[in-house]
Amino acid sequence: MNSLKDKSVFIASSSEGLEVARSVKRQLSDISQVDLWNEGVFVLNRSNLDSLLRAADLYEYAIICLTADDILMMRGEDYDVARDNLLFELGLFVGRIGISKTFIIVDKEVKLPTDLDGIFVSKFHMPENGNLLSAVGNSCSEIRDEMIKVANRSLISYYPSTALAIGYFENFIQKVLSALRDKKEISIDNAPISYDKFSLKILIPDKIADVDREKNLHDTLTRFQEIKIKTIHRSYPFYLKSDTDSNNVDHLVTYDFPTTLVSSRKIIEMILKKDFIGDDLETKVLEKREIGNFKNALKVLTKDISEVQIEDYSKE
């Protein structure tokens, strides 16, 4: 089961509902990055809408806290309703990161729009004793369970990592596995290597730059030996450890670095519309999310393939 560590969560509320939002944050404090709307999300020289759009880019999950802040008269009756800007933010995050990653926690006294019928909503009762932490406890447990379910799936997202993982799986992993299974023999410098069984280890980097062949991968590859295997489609390069010198091995361990991830960096730069050279915090956050999603997608795609292992790799 995937941990929720390293997942980023944005919590929205009205000013009046800020204590509810703070209680939700405390309940989810074991998640590494949980930020309230008033904790630096809205910045100088940027409109509120622009700040919200950027938040929808940066955060993997959103929790919208709806409290009874306004009164709406409808058909002669008064109803407690949430602040209208929060309903806008709810729609923005649903459209940006998806309904499965956007959660609603709502005071039971609040009337919700009928458009939200059928959507996961967790309700709490505003306590008379002021113990909000306890009041939102069950709701936060429900939301945590849903977040874990989402974390254990790889979803098509606004960013390209899932599509890149599918392409990498179908256009490289499957073809190489098929050739390795069928041929049972490969060669290094025209010297054949025979093997009884094999493993293909996919090394997932800490940073996308670590698999940039033109910049940072070259030094790492000096510790590996490139080999190529011919398939019915074309030749595919991958790697052995440089100390693999026997021509007859029981278990052949091969490696690959998914350089296709470099494409994510290019697209992130376009989405963020960067007007400067170098990394910033937002780029690093999005790259980390892309790497994590790419890794999760590969795990889903290869979960029934015993020869494939997905491993973390750090250049340091």
Proportion in β-strands: 25-35%
Helix content: 25-40%
Count of the separate structural domains: 2
- Overall structural class, as computed from helix and strand content, comes to alpha/beta
Query: Biggest sheet, in brief?
Result: 6 strands, mixed
Output the helix-strand order. EHEHEEEHEEHHHEEHEEEHHE
Please give the oligomerization state of what you see: single chain
Care to describe what's here?
The protein is α/β, with parallel strands linked by helices and 316 residues long. It folds into two domains: 8-151, Rossmann fold; 161-313, no CATH class. The protein has helices at residues 18-27, 48-58, 84-97, 132-135, 137-151, 161-183, 217-221, 262-272, 281-302; strands at residues 8-12, 33-36, 61-66, 70-74, 77-81, 102-107, 121-124, 185-188, 191-205, 224-230, 235-241, 248-256, 308-313. Strands 8, 9, 10, 11, 12 and 13 form a six-stranded mixed β-sheet that branches. Strand 1, helix 1 (18-27) and strand 2 (33-36) form a beta-alpha-beta unit. Helix 2 packs parallel to helix 3 (84-97), helix 6 packs across helix 9 (281-302) and helix 8 (262-272) crosses helix 9 (281-302). The longest helix is centred in the middle third of the chain and has 23 residues, at 161-183. The protein is elongated, with a radius of gyration of 25 Å. The protein starts with 7 loop residues before the first strand and ends with a strand.
In a nutshell, what does this entry contain?
Helix content is 36%, strand content 26%.
Secondary structure topology:
Elements lengths: L7 E5 L5 H10 L5 E4 L11 H11 L2 E6 L3 E5 L2 E5 L2 H14 L4 E6 L13 E4 L7 H4 L1 H15 L9 H23 L1 E4 L2 E15 L11 H5 L2 E7 L4 E7 L6 E9 L5 H11 L8 H22 L5 E6 L3
Parallel strand pairs: 1-2, 1-3, 3-6, 6-7, 9-12, 9-13
Antiparallel strand pairs: 4-5, 8-9, 10-11, 11-12
